[in-house]
Amino acid sequence: MTAKTLSEGILRAIGILASIALLLIFLYKIQSVLAYLAIAAVASLIGRPIVLFLRRKLKFNNTLAVIVTMILLIGIVTGIIALFIPLLVSQGQNLSLLNIEALQANVENLYAQVIDYFDLSSSEIEQGIKDSKILANLDFGFIPNFLNSFVAVLGSLSIGLFSVLFIAFFFLKDSKLFEEGLLIFVPDNKESRLKKSINTIKDLLSRYFIGLVLQILILFIIYSIVLFTFGIENAIVIAFLCALLNLIPYVGPIIGGILMLILTMTGNLGADFSTVILPKTIYVMIGFIIGQLVDNFFSQPYIFSNSVKSHPLEIFLVIIIGGLLFGITGMIIAVPGYTAIKVILKEFLAENKIVKSLTKNL
Predict the structure, then answer these.
(1) Vertex 304, ends 215 and 207: CA angle to 5°?
(2) What is the pLDDT of residues 19-36, one digit of tens each?
(3) Among candidates 188, 199, 178, which has minimal Cα distance to 347?
């Protein structure tokens, strides 16, 4: 190897690394645009069955079918905004304006009532708590900070709503353009397989995302009924947050349960622990568990088994691996990504024994 060859190799490596760095910087700068594209892609997948129904059953042309579908989606989004967002924002602001010092004092009082109720109090324990200052060091500010961030996200999403709808319209109308763009990079003898893979992926992911919307709606209704039944303040926003957190597999329900527990107990501060706070909290958490049982034994099997054609054990392992590699984002995108990979593998490596085993239900 000559010095010239070595220097050219080093320069080429530096050029590649610099290009990758510039690409990452560029993607970071346009992350909001990428978020709009991702949301629009999900919206187009949800709207795709409607477009196909209008084209095949009612004989609409493609443009008219897309326009009608977008009007329906805009109507649904507008209805959700008109009915829920103002209520969510107002209740979220109420929670975000909590008097943290008063809340902390009330929680300390609640803790003392719990100790007394279960007959666990002793001078040594009380003195140890005072000396350690555990309760004094707890930061209850995470509750309003979290809710303020959530309200800010709602505001930014409302600003980008037009962009999302505009992009989704062209995703639905000109989906063939994107397919043709991908076909440029595929040999001619593989084009039919790629087209078949893309259509299968669209069908599976459309059912998957529609199933997720149904899953959130079912949990939201159950949580709202439970919270309203027992007179919990800010029931709508608590139910919405806990249902939305369920999108994060395995971890989300735990966070949602803790959030519901905290907000239920702090919503009744000042009341008697044994006759008001404890019974309400127990009943609410029973309702939460019922919601999770419905989700685990009805909603999730329907979504995962019928929409993406994967075994629950597959889904579990894929979500865990996605979480280890990419954190919460990886857990959320693990199932759609795995489904797309399975479809492509089945189409191009159908004779492979492992692929045949993994894709036998597709």
Answers:
(1) 70
(2) 888 888 887 787 777 777
(3) 199
